[in-house]
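Lab notebook: predicted structure, single chain.

Context: the supervisor wants predicted structures on file for every construct in the current expression panel, including those that have not yet been purified. This is the next one on the list. No modifications to the sequence; it matches the entry in the shared construct table.
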Amino acid sequence: MFTGIITALGTIREARQSGDLRAVITCPFDPEAIAIGASIACSGTCLTVVDKGGIEGDAWFAVDISAESVARTVPGRWHEGTTLNLEPALKLGDELGGHIVTGHVDGVGEVLGICPEGDSRRIGFRIAPELAPYLAAKGSITVDGVSLTVNEVADQADGTCHFAVNIIPHTAEVTTLGSLAAGDKVNLEIDVLARYLKRMQSLRG
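Prediction complete. Output recorded below exactly as produced.
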């Protein structure tokens, strides 16, 4: 379980296919505080630590990424040199600063455009029809692992949906969202509460 509050940026140092895809990710964590078998959300994808090393501030950990996870996430995301948003799993007693995030990517969104709004940036996204019913204005969504509030939702004639979020300067600085451009793809996780409400509604129907 996660909150969508990013604690560090990591970089894929190595990615090799051997059964599953194994990625070695550099990070500023203390390796002594990383447990083998622990979960770390990597740009919104919950992955299990299978190896680790380095020193505090210059550490690394390795994860195995299944074919299902590769297929569900942004194409080309798991290549060497890619920067990732990192969040260790929530511990009992930690502050829940974002919203409840599972680390299960539901789909991929596309950046439609970015425009300044005060000191912040408003980013518009397009999502597939199957995710559209789960979005609501002022609801929560996870974009590349970052917990955000949906500002507006616009359903389109072709069944797709456009939605917009605001990125404050701090979020732009400490996550990969600050480097997004039109046409970029992002991992999306819908609000878990919306998922259960949709399921309950379908059973009633």
